[in-house]
Design brief:
By secondary structure, the protein is of the alpha/beta class. The chain has a single domain (6-163, 198-218, 253-259), classed as Rossmann fold (3-Layer(aba) Sandwich). Helix content is 38%, strand content 21%. Strands 1, 2, 3, 4, 5, 6, 7 and 8 form an 8-stranded mixed sheet that branches. Helix 4 (72-79) links the parallel strand 1 and strand 2. It is globular.
């Protein structure tokens, strides 16, 4: 296995902004953001997003999104009155966030950097979130340490990772691995596209152990869809069939807590 480096991670995400290949509009156009938001909200409803992120609770406070992507989450914090910063490893993400915020008419500051080297003083932010990012960086342990460092004591942490005890990882990927002759690890990486150099998975216990600076952790899983049971043909099955099982078997595992 080749070494996972910042350059390899950066190169992949620069070429493959999240979901960009599924959006039939010019990258960074107003239509692009509208279409992307619809795709995201199919998996994560606006009501769930508001409950997860507690947008209204951070009006007038400082919020950081580590791996801000195209700015979907940060836009909603900004619209709720937060002072927002976003960091990402690619120039593409910074450009997309800047364009999104321009269309929305809200303010934000965006910086290209790595999750392992956050350019902020200790105890800066009232809330740090990171959605599906920290499991992709070369040194996840260092990145989590940085997140805790810049979060104020008593500040809110909200993150999402991949779930080791999901149906997709425990059941589907093992038999797909046999059929495709790809390792389970490669299949995990390729959830976000062929060539993605890294994707880690966590149980609840593993995620709790990875967050020693965070107290009162609340963890739950979401996202369980037909394709995760039956690749390809399962896409025609309604998502509602699987929702009763997503808190145990969903692919995304969320963790929320407070810095000690």
């Amino acid at each position: 296995m080749s070494e996972i480096t910042t350059d390899s991670v950066q190169a992949f995400w620069q070429r493959n902004p999240l979901c960009a290949s599924a959006v039939p509009h010019e990258l960074g156009s107003r239509e692009y953001f509208t279409y992307y938001d619809g795709l995201r909200e199919h998996n994560e409803s606006p009501a769930f997003s508001a409950q997860l992120h507690e947008y209204a609770d951070f009006a007038g406070k400082r919020v950081l999104d580590v791996g801000c992507g195209n700015g979907y989450v940060l836009q909603r914090y900004a619209e709720a009155g937060a002072q927002v910063d976003g960091v990402d490893v690619t120039d593409m993400a910074i450009d997309l966030c800047t364009k999104r915020f321009g269309f929305a008419g809200v303010d934000g500051t965006f910086t290209r950097t790595t999750a392992e080297t956050l350019p902020f003083a200790d105890d800066t932010f009232d809330c740090v979130c990171s959605m599906g990012v920290l499991h992709h960086v070369p040194d996840t342990t260092k990145a989590i340490s940085e997140v805790a460092r810049v979060l104020k004591p008593g500040g809110r942490l909200i993150i999402m990772m991949y779930h080791r005890n999901s149906w997709l990882y425990r059941v589907t990927f093992p038999w797909v691995s046999i059929l495709t002759r790809k390792s389970v690890q490669q299949l995990v990486n390729e959830v976000d596209g062929v060539g993605n150099p890294k994707g880690d998975v966590y149980t609840r216990k593993e995620l709790e152990a990875a967050l020693p600076e965070i107290r009162d952790l609340e963890m739950f899983s979401r996202l369980l869809q037909g394709w995760m049971f039956l690749p390809y043909i399962g896409r025609v099955l309604p998502d509602a069939l699987f929702r009763p099982f997503q808190n145990r078997l969903g692919w995304f595992i969320y963790a929320k807590g407070w810095r000690r």
